Amino acid sequence: MYETETETETVLSICEQPASTILVGDCRLVMPCLSSLKFDCIFADPPFNFGESYSQWSDTLTRREYLKFTEEWLAACVRLLSAQGSLWVNCPNEVAARIVVFAEDGQGLTLANWCIWHYRFGQWTDRGFIRSKTHALHFVRDKSMAIWNPDSVLVPSDRSAKYGDSRTKQSKRPGLRVPLDVWGVESDGPYWGRVQGNNKERSPLHSNQLPEKYIERAIRSTTRKDSLFFTPFVGSGTEMVVARALGLVSYGAEIGVKEAKSAFDRIKRGSVRL
Predict the structure, then answer these.
(1) Which pLDDT score is estimated for 9?
(2) Residue 85 in contact with residue 40, Cβ under 8 Å?
(3) pLDDT at 190
(4) Domain containing 216 — which CATH number?
(5) Contacts of 97 (CB under 8 A, 6+ apart)
(6) Torsion of Cα atoms, 208 then 211 then 212 then 214, to 10°
(7) Is 127 helix (H, G, I), strand (E, B) or coil?
(8) 274 found inside a domain
(9) Is residue 50 part of a domain?
(10) Is this prediction's pTM over 0.90?
(11) Is the per-residue pLDDT at 72 higher than 50?
(12) How many Cβ atoms are within 10 Å of 92's Cβ, its own excluded?
């Protein structure tokens, strides 16, 4: 492991394979530094602009400013995406449709899957129905070339496990099926909820964490053993923790030094669920 500092950036890196490297700085400025690399899987979990507290970021942009920011980092991600690569975006209701339109019409990508991460215990409100989901948008350059490994993420078939349908035993994947496009349902098993309280995955500096199981499914289904992985928003480090556990060389960008070092420590500790 080493840490270096220059006038513009701090770099945190685990050298032993699979290597993991965090570049500290605004991802829009960091990504051009990685232009010599092409990534088979990019997973972006950006700030939602919901007024969260970040040491180096204002999470209260105007609507216009936030959409401009979103388009800038998306375009930078697309420039790093390999021909067979996948770009995953975890986002809230407010921008999901805008991201799809910009990615397809503005960047030439194809929406391969529009998944939903469903979780219990959403934040209480009486102004509407309680929010219990985020969107997992999966884009590719070309569906015919994109890496797609459904057999790596199979789950028990309800027809087999619940209803004992003998026909499932003669299917291509006996007793198993490809997951639904709503994630976090009963057949997915445990550990799909929000990471809060005394959850073993909990990182104290970060109020919003995605569960490792969520990231695992996205990465497993769209990478090979030699794929490179990138996340433009390291946050608590979940994406890089999972990528390392799966044996992938990974890179990430994080705007705050304190947050980057916290995530780096978590990456070194390793995965809890895999």
Answers:
(1) 63
(2) yes
(3) 94
(4) 3.40.50.150
(5) none
(6) -120
(7) coil
(8) no
(9) yes
(10) yes
(11) yes
(12) 14
